[in-house]
Amino acid sequence: MKVKITERDVLNPLAETEIETVALNPIQDSLGRISLLDNTKPGADIILSTIQENLESYDFVNAEKPAGASASPEEIDSAADADLCILALGDCGSCTTWVILDALKLEKRGVPTICICSDEFSTYAGELARSHGAADLRILEIEHPIAGQSDTLIQKRTLDILPELKKIIGGK
User: Fold this and answer.
1) Global pTM?
2) What residues does the UGSC-like domain cover (predicted)?
3) Which residues pair with 64 in a beta bridge?
């Protein structure tokens, strides 16, 4: 019996990959201006306006981008015109992806960020951030679902996360 042995090189799909680490920017003690980046998901505007109403000692810049897509360079420029950017809302796979990737663009420009994602998508958000070299990206969880809920319920859920948000930004 003849046996023919052929050797082949095979790419290991579990190989180590190099990831560029994204250095996160510290939130300044003298935080004055906060940009609110609304990805136009249902409820994102209510979350961000509730935050703005309850953080009275800051100036705010409002920026908006389409849901399910990357922010344009102009939208990133608008959101970067502050000492901190709060991005909302990651409550589905696509929007969570773009909230995280837009936050990374801002972090690379020197703007610290806080991403608001629903608790159903926060694990995915963290894994995505980690895979892009930002394991410690600030991700604040809000109770899922947001879409389809009353304004009053969304405001309540936002008020529930406000103490943690204040802790992250220094408590003003």
Assistant:
1) 0.90
2) 9-169
3) 38
Structural domains counted in the chain? 1
Structure tokens at 153: 């319920």
Residue type, 71: A
List, in sequence order, the alpha helices (H) in 65-146: 73-79, 93-108, 122-131
Domain of 58? 33-170
- Cβ(88)–Cβ(95) under 8 Å? no
Rounded CA gap, 73 and 8, in Å?
45
pLDDT profile of the chain (172 residues), mean per 10 = 73 69 95 97 98 96 95 98 98 96 98 99 96 97 98 99 96 54
Assess contact for 71 and 64: CB atoms under 8 A.
no
